[in-house]
Write a structure and sequence with these properties.
Elements (H helix, E strand, L loop, with lengths): L4 H10 L7 E4 L2 H7 L8 E5 L6 H4 L2 E4 L2 H13 L17 E5 L3 E12 L4 E7 L6 H7 L4 E5 L8 H8 L8 H20 L2 E12 L4 E3 L3 E4 L8 H4 L9 H8 L3 E4 L4 E5 L2 H13 L6 E4 L6 H13 L5 E8 L4 H14 L6 E7 L2 H10 L5 E2 L3 H15 L1
Bound molecules: guanosine-5'-diphosphate and manganese (II) ion.
Amino acid sequence: MKMHEYQAKELFRKFGIPVPQGLVARTAEEAFGATKEIMGPPWVVKAQIHAGGRGKGGGVRIAQTPEDVKKAAKAILETPLVTKQTGPEGRKVNQVLVEQGVEIDRELYLAVVIDRAKAMPVLIFSSAGGMEIEEVAEKTPELVLKQLIDPGTGWMPYHARTPAYSLDPLPDPDTLKDLMSLMANLYRAFIALDCSLAEINPLVVTKDGKLIALDAKINIDDNALVRQKDLKALEDPTEKDPLDYKAEKYNLNYIRLSGNIGAMVNGAGLAMATMDVIKLAGAEPANFLDVGGGASEEMVTRGLEIILEDENVKAILINIFGGILRCDVLARGVLAGAEKTAIKVPLIVRLEGTNVEEGRKILQESNLKFMVARDMVEAAEMVTAQVKKTA
Ligand code: GDP
Ligand code: MN
């Protein structure tokens, strides 16, 4: 789960990581009003979207007067923001963060992520923080230091000392001490919040030697959200793909893909096998959708709705092996889904297993138009022939 910068900064504050004073605004007027409470000039107005690279895309603006803050907020809020992470269509910005401007002496990079190969958290530190960090990592990887942290033994002072003392020139002793405790605090936050990523870029040293997290990014491991209910409540549904959001709400395992065959399957293994046979037949799946072994009629309905809402879908394949999910339940779910949204694309059904006769009968006696496939391979071939025909 991703979080907004302002939310990540509030969490950082709780873990003793200094962040600039700031307020969230949803309108240009609110942004103007915020300048009365936030120290400035200068102020910084920052687009709050789940995508990086805002600085280069015009989503981070420095303003010298409250009037300029208002103008900057208006400009950011009224046009979709395009960054290298949003795609060319950009992302609508619903809120901005108005912050006190900071005088930067140095921009550092600091993050904790999981090193999957080593199965350990790793602290990543660089003296060359800022908007070019990807380029730094690519062209001068020696400037990016990695410090593995064994979660068994936990945090050790050297985990901070080694990267911090690599700085050249070395900051003054107080700044260096602050930097090392900030590193420890970031690790503490990473563990306590079940993060998959905690990143500060840039972590700045100000002209008077203070450290401030100027940017903040936190991603929470989705698998931990059951025990991070407070964090789950911070989720912003407007930042999610609406189909992903719907799937999550109804407990469907759904991943959107780039092809044009919408597939509804029960069980993850069968769903993967179905994607394989679709590809073997020469087509591309539009999604992975596992309604679950024990899906209810409603889940089947919602699953079909999700497929029908995807404009890329040119044909649908329902491949069900009735076990705990009985074929008659599936058939009723499909009919309920088709009732709400007319199915305008070819539908191929392959049913097998528990109550298959009853399921087929329910479908046949309805006015739903569909084709029956005898087995999976035939189903994949039929659905592929349909998309080739419309292409
Ligand atoms: P990102 O581009 O989405 O990662 O957004 P950031 O929050 O990292 O901001 C981009 C850049 O704006 C930073 O690297 C800074 O150089 C600059 N910036 C942000 N806040 C301030 C500030 O308070 N003062 C100054 N001088 N620059 C800032
Ligand atoms: Mn940044």
